[in-house]
Amino acid sequence: MASINRQSGVEAAEKMLEVIKEMKSPYVVGIELSGDPRTGKFEDYRELIEKARHDLGLKVSLHCAEIEEQAQEADAMIDMKPDRLGHCCFLNN
Question: 14 catalytic, yes or no?
Answer without folding.
Answer: no
